[in-house]
Design goal:
Chain lengths: ~200, ~240
């Protein structure tokens, strides 16, 4: 548990909670596909806190976050039949669905939906998550990502946050930051390279 | 773009934030079944999920889970039963306190009534003592000529009136009461108050000035509970005055 000392308490608790269960996600997914309602309660216990925190980070309103959280879990419940229970990373899928629901909400509030924003629906297709390493949310990987994140410059961190938590394209970031598009693309590309290289030592399927 | 150039954008593609032209090129490439790009996309999805999990965590309210379970058709009790139980207990305590309060009020009223009765008795006895100790008090004969008469005393006082102390009274009976009469010499009986006996005895006082020279007899009869304007027979006590 030494590595947990390097992380903020709230983050460490959440990671530990998820990490203790990731190995049992296959069985949980099978039970969800069998329409076992207790499995749904278990899914909530396992990923509810993290999902809520992610949505809240994006929409910044507790009541809206609760509504979107419910929408997220209902979507998972309704689409789990397409999920590969043997190979899929359930947590990664749930978080992706949650993030996309929150970004969809932001876009609808901002009016960006009409501006030709990309439909996120097909990007969270459960089949896409059948080839991801089931340890995507393991303690070791999250610790490495956290460490890599701290190596980013403020500009790199800012563009990553705008992309992940505000759903902005690089053109939108350039407008927001009043920087040339080329500069924003450089910041984004270099930030992602740092994150990837930090994880390079960790096996990914 | 090459596979490597495309893979540099997979994280942003999976987030839905690449430009339309880039997205179309990526999707067209993936549709051709490029194994290395599909593997790179899987890595990008894993990185994205990892970054999502870096948020500072907060706990949602309990009701969110209940709402979610209800949305999929499952009755989820949550903590509502605790409130219901608490409400029922509070109601039971309130009822118990109400009953206790009513019982206490009843007991208090009973105690007040007893106290008033005791005070009344004390006052009556005090008046009787004052009556007896005054030098102007004169006795009247009691029960003379009667068979197994009630025992006791009748005293008269020019200012305080008549004092009757009696025992061995016959039972008045249900709905009946004792009534004292002051009978003037050669006149009609005047009502002198109603009283009840305790056991077979009683103390009764008629308050007020009295002309002892005109009083012939003090008598007691048994009358209806509301009393009578004239005595009905028989007379159970007859105490002639001045004989």
């Amino acid at each position: 548990m030494l590595i947990l000392k390097l992380l903020p308490l709230g983050l460490a608790y959440g990671i530990l909670q998820v990490a203790l269960h990731v190995t049992g996600d296959g069985d949980l997914a099978r039970r969800l596909k069998a329409r076992d309602s207790k499995a749904m309660a278990e899914l909530y216990d396992r990923y509810g806190r993290l999902t809520y925190s992610l949505i809240l980070r994006i929409v910044r309103n507790a009541s809206t976050a609760e509504d979107l959280m419910q929408e997220t879990f209902l979507r998972v419940w309704n689409r789990v039949q397409s999920f590969d229970a043997e190979k899929g990373a359930l947590g990664a899928w749930v978080l992706t669905v949650a993030r996309n629901r929150a970004i969809d909400h932001l876009r609808s509030v901002d009016g960006r939906m009409q501006a030709g924003a990309i439909d996120l629906d097909h990007l969270e297709n459960p089949r896409r998550f059948s080839t991801i390493d089931t340890s995507a949310l393991s303690i070791d990987r999250v610790r490495r990502l956290k460490s890599a994140f701290e190596k980013l410059t403020p500009q790199q961190r800012q563009v990553i946050e705008l992309a992940y938590y505000e759903g902005m394209s690089q053109t939108e970031m350039a407008d927001r930051l009043q920087q040339p598009l080329g500069t924003v693309k450089t910041w984004t590309r270099s930030a992602l390279q740092i994150l990837r290289s930090e994880l390079a030592g960790v096996a990914i399927a | 773009m090459t596979c490597h150039e495309l893979s540099e954008m997979f994280e942003l593609y999976a987030l839905g934030v690449v430009e339309a032209e880039e997205r179309e090129e990526i999707e067209a490439h993936l549709a051709r079944g490029c194994d290395s790009c599909n593997a790179a996309l899987a890595k990008a999805l894993a990185i994205n999920a990892g970054i999502f999990s870096l948020v500072y965590q907060k706990t949602p309210r309990r009701r969110v889970k209940r709402r979610m379970m209800q949305a999929i058709g499952v009755h989820y009790p949550g903590w509502g039963w605790v409130w219901a139980l608490g409400g029922a207990l509070a109601l039971a305590v309130a009822i118990w306190l109400g009953v206790q309060e009513r019982q206490r009020t009843t007991e208090l009223a009973e105690a007040r009534r007893t106290l008033l009765e005791v005070r009344g008795e004390r006052d009556r006895l005090t008046a009787a003592l004052r009556f007896l100790s005054d030098p102007q008090t004169v006795p009247a004969s009691f029960g003379k000529g009667q068979t197994a008469p009630p025992r006791g005393y009748v005293f008269l006082h020019p200012q305080m009136g008549v004092l009757l102390i009696a025992s061995n009274l016959p039972p008045a009976g249900a709905g009946k009461t004792y009534e004292m009469w002051v009978i003037p010499k050669g006149g009609t009986p005047r009502p002198a108050g109603l009283f009840q006996s305790e056991g077979a005895g009683a103390v009764h006082i008629l308050n007020g000035p009295l002309d002892l020279d005109t009083v012939g007899t003090v008598a007691v009869t048994i009358e209806p509970a509301a009393g009578s304007a004239a005595p009905t027979m028989p007379i159970i006590i007859a105490a002639p005055v001045g004989t």
